[in-house]
Amino acid sequence: MPPCLKSLRFYICVFETTGHIIASMNTRRTEDFREKLLEAGVSLFARTGYHGTGVKDIVEHAGVPKGSFYNYFESKEAFGAAILHHYAEEQAAEWRQYSREADAAAADPLLALRMIYERIVVDYEACDDRDGCLLGNFAGEIAQSSELCRDAALHTVNEWRGGFADYLQRGQEYGSVRQDLAADAMADLFWNAWEGSLLRMKLEHSVEPLKLCVHLMLDLFFKSPS
After folding, report:
1. Quick one: which of 59, 95, 122, 183 could link to 169 by a disulfide (CB 3.0–4.6 Å)?
2. What's residue 132's pLDDT?
């Protein structure tokens, strides 16, 4: 092969390799920026709410360029929906971890469910800022004004509801959970009680309402009388 062609082939190879590296770096940077914005949104929305948080606050907290926000999200409303999905994924991962540990420790699904919520209460107790449930906060603040965010919130609630009801159904089969009420109805009741307890936790700056909710629901109300 003539030297000139060898050189040309070398430079083409270097260009392709360098281009691949640059593209990979840009992709990673894009993913990092988006992740930083989402993490900032979770933190700020939990602390100051949707309406109390501006785009300027989000990019400053995330430490990304000011113009980057609209490269990833077409509007603050779209960002809010993305935050809910991001929060749901984090909560789902935590639920799976706690479920595996509880299922390994307890044959009774109701007892395993109680162990999961004991872990969740401990997590809240360890936090200095007890901001409650981001999903519940969103629902109270913008569910009536944003269909996009309302749909995202409902999707998250339904996923949680399915996982919780599954434990109750298995508990009914095991014999530890009352059978005169449907598992779905009991899951809804727990959600309502739990969200109210989270609100009281914020007002009183105490996890005692959470502990009482877990005790009343899982030790008494859901328990089979036999």
Report:
1. 183
2. 61
Total-model pTM: 0.76
Which residues are bridge partners to 177 per DSSP? Answer: 223
The single-letter code of the amino acid at 217 is: M
Q: What are the structure tokens assigned to 11, written together?
A: 């430079």
Element (H, E) at 224: none
The count of other CB atoms within 10 Å of the CB of residue 204 is 11
For the segment 88-102, what is each residue's pLDDT rounded down to a tens digit? Answer: 888 889 999 999 999
Q: Of 149, 116, 119, give the one whose Cα is nearest residue 135.
A: 149
Element (H, E) at 96: helix 76-105
Number of residues assigned to the chain: 226
CA distance 43 to 37: 10
Report pLDDT digits (tens) over 161-196: 999 999 999 999 999 999 999 999 999 999 999 989
Report which DSSP code applies to 53: -
